[in-house]
Design goal:
The chain is α/β, with parallel strands linked by helices and 182 residues long. It contains six helices and four strands, in the order βαααβαβαβα.
Length: 182
């Protein structure tokens, strides 16, 4: 037998977060309707079930439940495949008749499984999704240079949100070195 001790949700500020970064400045992900379609097409409960090892819960905020920084309701869309398909159909004419997205990540077998699950969810909504695992140095260059459409990322983990100012401020979102890629 074993005993698990975790303080996963007792942090004061922000836990380490795994998330998908979407480039809001170019490509199909600059379209609000496409971003909404991606949100509705993503089933976070399924992702956590598949990859959370039984200890994680869905979190659609930078802050964990119980944090003084977390809003009561951030309005994040709930999984709804029919709504995602509707939004894809609405946006597709503005993108040559279909929506094609490249999702980048670093080469890691566990991450590969996660992005494959997301690819499947997004394709079920009617998008064409290609996966590209690239070396971390190239990955970082593409993030800070704004040369991506969607990227699997991990970040934050600060006891005080002020320590993440550089990652969240609009003053640090200007290429050629945009640190606010999240």
């Amino acid at each position: 037998s074993y005993q698990q001790v975790t303080d996963l949700y007792s942090t004061v500020g922000e836990p380490d977060m795994d998330f998908i970064c979407l480039n809001c400045e170019s490509g199909p992900t600059s379209d609000l309707t496409v971003r909404q379609a991606l949100a509705y097409a993503t089933d976070p409960e399924e992702v956590v079930k598949l990859f959370g090892d039984g200890v994680l819960t869905v979190n659609t905020s930078l802050y964990p439940p119980g944090s003084i920084y977390r809003p009561a309701d951030n309005g994040y869309p709930k999984f709804n495949l029919a709504k995602a398909k509707e939004l894809v159909a609405k946006a597709a004419p503005n993108h040559g008749g279909s929506i094609s997205i490249e999702l980048i990540d670093i080469p890691d077998p566990r991450q590969a499984l996660i992005i494959q699950a997301l690819q499947s969810m997004w394709q079920a909504a009617g998008m064409k999704v290609s996966l590209n695992q690239i070396q971390q140095v190239t990955y970082i260059d593409q993030l800070v240079g704004g040369q991506f459409q969607a990227a699997a990322d991990e970040q934050f983990a600060s006891p005080d949100p002020d320590l993440n100012y550089v990652w969240l401020s609009p003053t640090t979102a200007n290429p050629p070195l945009a640190l606010n890629f999240a």
